[in-house]
Write a structure and sequence with these properties.
Enolase-like, domain 1, FAD/NAD(P)-binding domain, flavoprotein, 25 strands, FAD/NAD-linked_Rdtase_dimer_sf, alpha/beta, FAD, five-stranded parallel beta sheet, globular, Reductase C-terminal, oxidoreductase activity, acting on NAD(P)H
């Protein structure tokens, strides 16, 4: 494979910016164009629901310094949205009238917050959280609000609830799940997060559905639940997950996977010649799991962006990293590695759930499928090795043995 003359990267988030930087780091001397619809230069998303929303920072963590792109001869167009990919002609069109031929194309278009498909779900004044501008607006709203209602008890909903309580708002969280994060960590570990938030004053309405967003042209008044109860609020945040932004890829005729992402092989290649996808949109065939997985976390975008650079330049290396994410809520911090199915995997707890100082493991067929350390920071390398190596261990070993000795 000859070196490409021009690489076009659509999406200037962490995945796209990491790909651009890694291509240069590998000695590529051709053209790089980075197209991003956000008006800001590339930044990382985790600080938005943490430091920015809490008021501890006014800026996110920028992926690179502002001067980086010019110094590395990366053409960066902010506030420009790609509108069409012409696979046959090998070019990308944008909403500013630009036509961008490519030899290699990387799609890193990320995700958009899901809306709630109920009456009133499109009322003006509803908040979502995805961008820096979203976070700054929501922070101001939290600071002025007496009552905040959050629909969704996932990671964003939990972190936003912690931020709203830090701003002294009364907070109610609604979700049909039995405990927060039940689909990710199961009811036992999810109960730890529920108790954490309850102890910090959050009101939960779990096991209940939102039937309607109430309000009118002047804004949102609150929600009506399926049982008829009405909850009023000054701020309503919809935090029910994110959908991969695959409209561009779909319109171009690229294959979509069952989970809605862009189907890519182990090396992050689509079926179209010289077209790759990374980050939130990539439904990646992961050799470790023997199936496609799509991961929407920070580390995945960063690592896939860096990894795809080598394949853009002629290599054919599979992406093998395990999923990883982290969260901070009040005085709780944790890291999660791997991919568990809490409905079927065996949960093993090392430490004290009540004290919120523990490590949780999920075993599948005697192998470590995932591990999560909560306010325990000494065993990160060992946990990574156990998950990456799919270590064969017993529950008793995980509870009592030196973890490094099991890797």
């Amino acid at each position: 494979m000859s070196e490409p003359r021009k690489i076009v990267i659509v999406g200037a988030g962490l995945g796209g910016a990491s790909a651009a930087a890694a291509v240069r780091e590998r000695g590529y001397s051709g053209e790089i164009l980075l197209l991003g619809s956000d008006p800001h230069r590339p930044y990382e998303l985790p600080p938005l629901s943490k430091g920015v929303l809490l008021g501890n920072a006014d800026e996110p963590d920028w992926v690179h310094e502002e001067k980086f792109y010019a110094e590395k001869d990366i053409s960066f167009a902010s506030g420009v949205t790609a509108t069409r990919i012409e696979l046959g002609a090998r070019q990308v069109l944008d909403d500013a009238g630009g036509e961008h031929p490519y030899d290699r194309l990387v799609l890193a278009t990320g995700s958009s917050p899901r809306r709630l498909p109920v009456p009133g779900g499109d009322l003006p004044g509803l908040y979502t959280l995805r961008t820096l501008d979203d976070a700054l607006k929501l922070r101001s709203a939290f600071a002025a609000a007496e009552r905040v209602l959050i629909v969704g008890a996932g990671w964003i909903g939990c972190e936003a609830a912690a931020a709203a309580r830090t701003h002294n708002a009364e907070v109610t969280v609604v979700d049909p799940v039995p405990v927060p994060l039940a689909n990710v960590v199961g009811e036992t570990v999810g109960g730890v997060f529920r108790d954490l938030h309850v102890s910090n004053g959050v009101n939960y309405r779990l096991g209940e559905q939102v039937a309607e967003i109430t309000g009118g042209p002047d804004g949102v008044r609150g929600v009506r639940l399926g049982n008829g109860d009405e909850i009023t609020a000054d701020v309503v945040l919809i935090a029910v997950g994110a959908a991969p932004r695959v409209e561009l890829a779909h319109a171009a005729g690229l294959e979509l996977a069952d989970d809605g992402g862009v189907a890519v092989d182990a090396g992050l290649r689509t079926a179209a010649p010289d077209v790759y996808a990374v980050g939130d949109i990539a439904a990646h065939f992961h050799p470790k799991y023997g199936r496609r997985i799509r991961v929407e976390h920070w580390a995945n975008a960063k690592d896939q962006g860096a990894h795809v650079a080598r394949n853009l330049l002629g290599e054919n290396e599979p992406f093998l990293a395990s999923p990883y994410f982290f969260t901070d809520q009040y005085d709780l911090g944790c890291e999660y590695r791997g991919l568990a199915d809490p409905a079927t995997d065996e949960l093993v707890v090392r430490g004290d759930l009540a004290a919120r100082e523990f490590t949780a493991f999920w075993l599948r067929d005697g192998e470590v499928a995932a591990a999560m350390n909560v306010n325990m920071w000494d065993d990160g390398d060992a946990l990574g090795a156990l998950v990456d190596g799919r270590a064969k261990v017993t529950a008793d070993q995980l509870r009592t043995a030196d973890l490094a000795s099991l890797t």
